[in-house]
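Operator note (shift B, R.M.): manual run for Ig-like domain-containing protein requested after the automated queue skipped it. Running by hand, logging everything below so the morning shift can see what happened. Input copied straight from the record, untouched. If output looks odd, do not overwrite the archive copy; leave it for review.
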Amino acid sequence: MITYFCVLLCWQALPLQGLEILDPEEVEYIRSHAKATVGGSVTLDCGSTMPNIFIWGFTKAGSANNVAVAYNYGQGPKLQSQFSSMGHVRVADNTSALVVEGLQRDAEGTYTCQALYDGDEGARITFYFTRLEVEDD
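Run finished. Output pasted below as returned.
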């Protein structure tokens, strides 16, 4: 998964100017759990500060297939269109948080936000894993 992330990150980082990516010494992993009801909404966080680059992925419960949901590499957030069966998916304004409204059962699974922060001490990469349970009303 790290190799996939690096290939995707390097490909997407090409349009960014002035972003110097130094080799991070450590990758941080943060896990959380969320519950929501069918028809409701949920906001999934990708850190407390806006990363320079983020990529949201989704793995359906019982599957090993992780697919891209949304990403931002300096041009504003972009959404993949194939997720209409989950509900209305969007990235909250001026954040990296993923919002799913009108939740459907298909939204249940694990969401991964891969966040790259570029600071004075070099790049820092954090993976935010959120396991979402969608319950009946």
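Quick read of the result: The beta strands are 27-37, 41-44, 53-60, 66-72, 78-79, 88-91, 98-101, 109-119, 122-135. Helices lie at 2-13.
Leaving this for review. - R.M.
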